[in-house]
Write a structure and sequence with these properties.
By secondary structure, the chain is mainly alpha-helical. Helix content is 64%, strand content 5%. It has helices at 2-56, 68-80, 114-119, 122-137, 140-168, 180-217, 220-236, 269-283; strands at residues 60-61, 87-91, 98-101, 109-113. Strands 1-2-4-3 form a four-stranded mixed sheet, with helices on both faces. It starts with a helix and ends in an 11-residue tail after the last helix.
Length: 294
């Protein structure tokens, strides 16, 4: 069901891009320009999204000799999930968080902060690593990169047209002026709608990654405890960085209350724990936790 929701949301986001381009630039020629911009941006996201995300948080690569316990934990879980062992990075930050990035399992990286290593006991840190490997397994990192790129393209188009609208007036190459009210509404609502859809995709994939982690470790309660600790920690010490990459993190990086669930990058911790309770009930009669069953 989560996969169907993700595909539907990505389709809706793409349709929004075409519609916004049609109205903002003008006709089907405008829609074509929007798609070409998206294609170029997505190509960049395909090859460089991992490097950009790691650089945004100042993540530093570590070798097995530099972080032997962390490396063995990632390697053990990767083998259990039938995944190549990803590159491992540590973010020099006291904030407790983690994320995965990369276009596919063969080009993946898992990054954890110094704060999360110091905060969580081994079983809970293992659950967090399993969550990130679930993202890699499901190629969520690529999905998020595509969603962010399309949403960013829509925002870029709206900004460019708004500058043109205010400084050069309402005109089109075909000589027909667009309805100023339609242009204004599109410039305002299209980026907002794109953000809402992008965050909805992020929230959907978090549930799937939690489920995958619980099945991989066979210990849903460890992840539930970790999420509670991380939520409490984030309120006291939020992780700083480019907000565009916030959907990659295991826990929302903002402190305080959210304005609305509609604009949150993650489901509530309470909802995620309830999901983990359901997974625990499903696992109660099996002895072979794995990612392949969902």
């Amino acid at each position: 069901m989560n996969q169907i929701k993700t595909v539907a949301l990505l389709g809706l986001l793409s349709a929004l891009l075409i519609t916004a381009s049609y109205w903002l630039i003008g006709g089907w020629g405008g829609a074509t320009i929007g798609l070409l911009l998206a294609a170029v941006s997505n190509l960049g996201a395909w090859y460089y999204s991992d490097k950009i995300a790691l650089a945004a948080y100042g993540a530093q690569p570590v070798t097995p000799s530099q972080a032997p316990e962390l490396y063995q934990m990632v390697k053990k879980l990767s083998n259990k999930a039938s995944l190549p062992t990803p590159a491992i990075y540590i973010v020099p930050s006291p904030a407790a968080n983690a994320f995965a990035t990369g276009r596919d399992p063969e080009h993946a990286a898992v990054a954890v902060t110094e704060g999360i290593i110091n905060l969580l006991p081994p079983d809970e840190l293992e659950a967090v690593i399993a969550h990130e490997l679930s993202h890699v397994y499901n190629r969520d990192t690529l999905t998020q990169a595509v969603a962010a790129t399309i949403a960013g393209t829509i925002y870029f188009l709206a900004q460019m047209v708004s500058y043109s609208f205010w400084f050069t007036g309402n005109s089109r190459d075909d000589g027909e002026g667009a309805n100023p009210l339609v242009l204004l509404l599109t410039m305002i609502l299209a980026p907002v709608a794109a953000t809402v859809i992008q965050l909805a995709i992020s929230r959907t994939r978090e549930f799937a990654a939690d489920t995958g982690a619980a099945k991989l470790t066979g210990n849903p309660r460890a992840l539930a405890r970790a999420l509670q600790r991380l939520e409490s920690s984030a309120k006291q010490m939020p992780m700083t960085g480019n907000p565009a990459f916030a959907p990659l993190l295991i826990i929302n990086s903002f402190s305080g209350q959210f304005l609305s669930n509609l604009f949150s990058t993650h489901p509530s911790v309470a909802a995620r724990i309830e999901n983990l309770r359901q997974v625990e009930m499903e696992l109660s009669g099996t002895n072979s936790p794995s990612l392949s069953s969902f």
